Amino acid sequence: MFMKFVAAASCAASLAAAFPALAQDYPADNVTVIVPFAPGGASDTTARTVTQAMQADFGQPLVVENKPGANGALGAAELARARPDGYTIMVASIGTYAINPALRDDLPYDPREDMEMLTVAVRTPNVLVTRPTLDVASAEDLIAMLKDQPDTMLFASSGVGSSDHLTAELFWQRTGTTGIHVPYSGGGPAQTDLIGGHADVSFQNLGAVAGFVREGQMKMLAIAAAERSPDFPDVPTFKELGIDGMEVYSWQAFGAPKGLDPAVKDSLATAITGALQTPEVQETFGNLGFEILANAPAEADAFVADEIARWSEVIETGNITPEE
Questions:
Q1: Staple 84 to which of 68, 157, 257, 316, CB 3.0 to 4.6 Å?
Q2: How are the residues of the chain apportioned to helix, strand and coil, as percentages rounded to the nearest 5?
Q3: Helix, strand or coil, per DSSP, at residue 259
Q4: d(Cα 102, Cα 318) in Å, to the nearest integer?
């Protein structure tokens, strides 16, 4: 028995000694960066912009792999199954990290149990926009119309459970109004129908619709941010309108499998946030309407937990289901 104890202790000591060595040598191979969506979207742009800026000093190639499917669940499940060695990470959105867990009971991953956050990289506020011909000049006008004509206005979204869908649900809950949710197969089709007058209202990412607003193809009535946008200084925040709890941002974050060695985690987080602070990356995201956060892992982890709790409440109150 004593010899077994000695052998076990020796094995444990060897493993403990090995982890610092592995961390010290990191990175020694390519790092796969999973994007659980198709190329060209916000998660893909975030991954490619940041990894390109990281590449010069990182020491090994960072390879972006798109793994689309099931609103990000397929790629996220692959991350959850990966070894927590720092050689597989993920860039994904609010939907993957916070809304899917709040909306679905059948997810093949749990962001709280299977993942740990490296940083919330960027965010952009959602804005309240309408078709150009809708006879309203302000958010107050729209709310009055919704109360006068309940369950008649068509609210376009990029899909069930998207941040723009849930922002509309939150808006109805906060203002005591109702509308008809019309889910599309992405933000582009929803925006096209809003411009064409086939839908009435939508919540969209500021960066995605700024050009349409400037060209008069949409009306922007309010911004779901803490402060007014410097690009649209005349558009009020919901808080200024007396509607609390309507700060809503779409965000992109870096995550890794649970159990990452602390030294490796620190190396990754430092490299990612350092890249986000470079002038070139700041300019790129600024032009896209994104604000850089680049927060610490502990802050990012707490933020995601708060987001899951927040959207769980909205989904429960609105009786929202994935099949809606």
A1: 257
A2: 50, 20, 35
A3: coil
A4: 12
Q: What is the pLDDT of residues 55-83, one digit of tens each?
A: 999 999 999 999 998 878 999 999 999 99
- Rg from Cα positions in the chain: 22
Which token pair is 65?
A: 């792999």
> What is the tens place of the pLDDT at every residue in 185-233?
888 899 999 999 999 999 999 988 999 999 999 999 999 999 999 999 9
Residue 1, class by beta-carbon neighbours within 10 Å (0-12 exposed, 13-18 middle, 19+ buried)?
exposed
Closest-CA residue to 36 (of 126, 109, 113): 109
Cα 101 to chain centroid, rounded: 13
**Is the link from the previous residue into 61 a cis peptide, with omega within 30 of 0?**
no
Taking the model in full, what pTM does it have? 0.86
| Residue among 306, 194, 204 at smallest CA distance from 249 | 204
**Tokens at 61, concatenated:** 């190639």
Sole residue written with tokens 């987001």: 307
* Nearest-angstrom CA–CA distance, 170 and 167: 5
The CB density around residue 309, as the number of other CB atoms within 10 Å, is 11
Q: Which residue has the tokens 């060595």?
A: 21
Domains of the chain with bracketed CATH: 27-123+250-318 (3.40.190.150), 125-223 (3.40.190.10)
DSSP secondary structure, 42-74, as one string: HHHHHHHHHHHHHHHHHSS-EEEEE---GGGHH
Q: Is the dihedral of CA 97, 100, 103, 109 positive or negative?
A: negative
